[in-house]
């Protein structure tokens, strides 16, 4: 069984993902016997969509500081961050708030 998600990247994040802002993906509904969550999605994205510069997307076990994550237009901090269990039809947005100078 799979979960369908809409993933969007902004603020320059799209440059790490084939310069494409929007992706419709399907991920496994379970990972290691547990329901898929945002943490497992982040690593799925790293393994399946990320094309370059992993260090600009992931730091440790989560996204690096300076990346705003929205779940259905709500800050992921209000949804439990990486523990949020993704649901079929969710829209997840990653926006870089850091800009070089």
TrEMBL record:
One of its GO terms (cellular component) is cytosol. GO terms for biological process: protein urmylation; tRNA thio-modification; tRNA wobble uridine modification. InterPro entries: Beta-grasp_dom_sf, Mopterin_synth/thiamin_S_b, Urm1. C-terminal thiocarboxylation occurs in 2 steps, it is first acyl-adenylated (-COAMP) via the hesA/moeB/thiF part of UBA4, then thiocarboxylated (-COSH) via the rhodanese domain of UBA4. It comes from the Eukaryota. PANTHER family: RURM1 PROTEIN. It is found in: Cytoplasm. It holds the Pfam family Urm1. There is a cross-link at residue 101 (Glycyl lysine isopeptide (Gly-Lys) (interchain with K-? in acceptor proteins)). This is Ubiquitin-related modifier 1. The keyword Cytoplasm applies.
């Amino acid at each position: 069984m799979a979960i369908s998600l809409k993933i969007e990247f902004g603020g320059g994040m799209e440059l790490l993902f084939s310069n494409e802002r929007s992706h419709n993906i399907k991920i496994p509904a379970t990972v290691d016997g547990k329901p898929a969550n945002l943490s497992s999605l982040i690593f799925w994205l790293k393994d399946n969509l990320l094309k370059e510069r992993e260090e600009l997307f992931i730091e440790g076990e989560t996204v690096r500081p300076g990346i705003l994550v929205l779940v259905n237009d709500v800050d992921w901090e209000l949804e439990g961050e990486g523990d949020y269990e993704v649901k079929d039809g969710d829209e997840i947005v990653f926006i870089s708030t850091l800009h070089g100078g």
